[in-house]
Design goal:
By secondary structure, the chain is α/β, with parallel strands linked by helices. It folds into two domains: 261 residues, Type I PLP-dependent aspartate aminotransferase-like (Major domain) (Aspartate Aminotransferase, domain 2), CATH 3.40.640; 129 residues, Aspartate Aminotransferase, domain 1, CATH 3.90.1150.10. Helices cover 41% and strands 13% of the residues. It contains 16 helices and 13 strands. The strands form three sheets. A seven-stranded mixed sheet has the order 1-9-8-5-4-2-3, sandwiched between helices. A three-stranded antiparallel sheet has the order 7-6-11, with no helix packed on it. Helix 1 packs antiparallel against helix 11. The longest helix is centred in the C-terminal third of the chain and has 19 residues. The radius of gyration is 22 Å and the shape is globular. The chain starts with 10 loop residues before the first helix and ends with a helix. It binds pyridoxal-5'-phosphate. The site of pyridoxal-5'-phosphate has 14 residues, from helix 3 and helix 4.
C-alpha cells in the first residue's frame, strides 16, 4: 500500500530527540527557543511563538486580540473545521464565504461583500500550500471606505485601526508571494506541525507575528509566552535558576506550550526543509506531466507570476465527475493499494455547521471543486516509481468509472 503522507522519521530525527530526552530538559526550553528563532529567520516575520497546535495557537491569539461575542470573523467554507471551530469557541460568529474561480482559496470579492462593521478579522486559508492573493486582501482591508467602517473593540484593535488579516498557513510553510514567505505575508500567521503537514513536530504549531511597526513585538512575544503557560510570569526554565522560584499570575492563561522533544524534531525538519520542498515540487511536476493531456483531468494551480506553492497537496480534479463518481474512483484507486484523500469536506456539509444554519448551496464554487477533487500522495520519500504507480492507478480508476 502506498501511504498518503507518512512523516519522514529517520536516524537523524531519532538522534536529535534522544539528545533532547537525555539533556535533562524535556519541556519548553532551549530547543523550543531556537526553533522559534529559526522560524522567524526563515519566514522573515517579526517574532514567533511555538505552541502545541495550530488550533491552540489561534485560539489563544483570538483571545489576546479580544475577539468575542458580537464580533464576526470571515473565513472560507472550503477548509478544515479547525479554522471555524476556534472562531466558535472565541464567541464570535464565523462568516463563511465562497472560494474563487482559479484556485481553492477564499474569494477576495466574496470577502468584500461579507464585511460589516462587526468584522474584526479575516482568516484566509492557503489551501494545499498555495498562498492566497494577499496583495489583494491586504489592499482591501486598507481601503478608506472599509477602514471607516471598522469599529475597534479594544486597544490592540484601535492601534491597528482596521480589520486584521490572519493566514491559516497550516499547509503553506515555505510558500511565497512576491518573493516573501508565509509568516510575513499578513499580520498574523498560524502554522500547523501536525504529523500530516509538510513540516512536522508530531503535534505542534507556531504563531508568527508581523503586525505594523507601532506594535512592540518583543513585548508581544513575552506576553504571548506567558499566556500559553497559564499566565505565569516565569516559565519552568526561568524558575530553575537559583532562588528564582516565586512567580505571579496576573490573568488566567492557557496551557499549550511546545516541548523541547517536539522542537528537536522541528529543528531537523527545518534544516532539511528545502530538500523536502524540492522533492514535492518534482512530484508535482511529474503529476502535471502525467495528467496534463488527459481531457478528464483538471490539474491544480500551484504557481503564478508572483505566487509559489510549497507543494503540500496535489488536488487533482476529475472533470464532470459527480460526488458519487469521485467516491467510486477513489475506491477503485484504494483497491489498487494507493492511498488518496479529499481536502476538504466543506464546512457546511458537517453536522456542527449545518446545525448552525450554514447551507452548502450558498457556496457553489466550494461544492464545484470539492465534489470532483482527489488529493494524491506527495512527500519526500515517495519514489518516482511510486509516483508512476499512483498515476496508473488513477488513470485506470477513472477509465473504469467514467
Ligand atoms: C491541519 C489544519 C489545521 C489544524 O492544525 P492543528 O495543528 O491540528 O491544530 C488548521 N487548518 C487547516 C487548513 C489544516 O489543514
Amino acid at each position: 500500500m502506498i501511504p498518503f503522507s507518512p512523516p519522514r522519521i529517520d536516524q537523524k530525527v531519532v538522534d536529535e530527540v534522544s539528545a533532547a530526552l537525555l539533556s535533562g530538559w524535556i519541556t519548553t526550553g532551549p530547543r523550543t527557543k531556537l526553533f522559534e528563532k529559526r522560524i522567524t529567520e526563515y519566514c522573515g516575520c517579526k517574532t514567533t511563538v511555538a505552541v502545541n497546535s495550530w488550533t491552540m495557537g489561534m485560539q489563544v491569539f483570538l483571545h489576546w486580540w479580544g475577539i468575542g461575542e458580537g464580533d464576526e470573523v470571515i473565513l472560507p467554507a472550503y477548509t478544515y473545521c479547525a479554522s471555524a471551530n476556534v472562531i466558535v469557541h472565541s464567541g464570535a460568529k464565523p462568516v463563511m464565504v465562497d472560494i474563487g474561480h482559479d484556485d481553492f482559496n477564499i474569494s477576495i470579492e466574496a470577502v468584500r461583500k461579507a464585511i460589516t462593521p462587526r468584522t474584526k478579522a479575516i482568516i484566509a486559508v492557503d489551501l494545499a500550500g498555495f498562498p492566497c492573493d494577499y496583495n489583494a486582501l491586504n489592499a482591501l482591508v486598507r481601503e478608506p471606505e472599509i477602514m471607516n467602517m471598522f469599529l475597534a473593540g479594544n486597544e490592540h484593535q484601535e492601534k491597528l485601526g482596521r480589520i486584521l488579516v490572519i493566514s491559516d498557513a497550516a499547509h503553506s510553510f515555505g510558500a511565497e508571494e512576491n518573493g516573501k514567505r508565509t509568516g510575513s505575508l499578513t499580520d498574523i500567521t498560524s502554522f500547523s506541525f501536525h504529523a500530516v503537514k509538510n513540516l512536522t513536530t508530531a503535534e505542534g504549531g507556531a504563531v508568527c507575528f508581523n503586525l505594523p511597526d507601532n506594535f512592540d513585538h518583543d513585548a508581544i512575544y513575552k506576553e504571548f509566552c506567558t499566556l500559553i503557560l497559564h499566565g505565569q510570569n516565569k516559565d519552568a526554565l526561568a524558575k530553575t535558576q537559583k532562588g528564582n522560584w516565586r512567580y505571579d499570575v496576573e490573568e488566567p492563561g492557557f496551557k499549550c506550550n511546545m516541548t523541547d522533544l517536539q522542537a528537536a524534531i522541528g529543528l531537523v525538519e527545518l534544516e532539511r526543509y528545502q530538500e523536502n520542498l524540492d522533492r514535492r515540487k518534482e512530484i508535482f511536476r511529474q503529476y502535471d506531466l502525467a495528467f496534463h493531456h488527459e481531457d478528464w483531468a483538471i490539474t491544480p494551480l500551484h504557481t503564478t507570476d508572483n505566487r509559489m506553492s510549497c507543494y503540500h497537496l496535489y488536488q487533482l480534479r476529475i472533470k464532470g465527475a459527480t460526488e458519487q463518481q469521485r467516491d467510486a474512483i477513489m475506491q477503485a484507486i484504494f483497491d489498487q493499494d494507493v492511498s488518496v484523500n479529499v481536502h476538504f469536506l466543506p464546512l457546511p456539509t458537517l453536522t456542527a455547521y449545518k446545525k448552525r444554519g450554514y447551507r452548502m448551496e450558498d457556496y457553489p464554487e466550494t461544492w464545484n471543486k470539492y465534489s470532483n477533487e482527489i488529493s494524491l500522495p506527495v512527500y519526500f520519500n515517495l519514489t518516482d516509481e511510486q509516483v508512476s504507480t499512483v498515476v496508473e492507478a488513477v488513470k485506470k480508476a477513472v477509465n473504469t468509472i467514467l
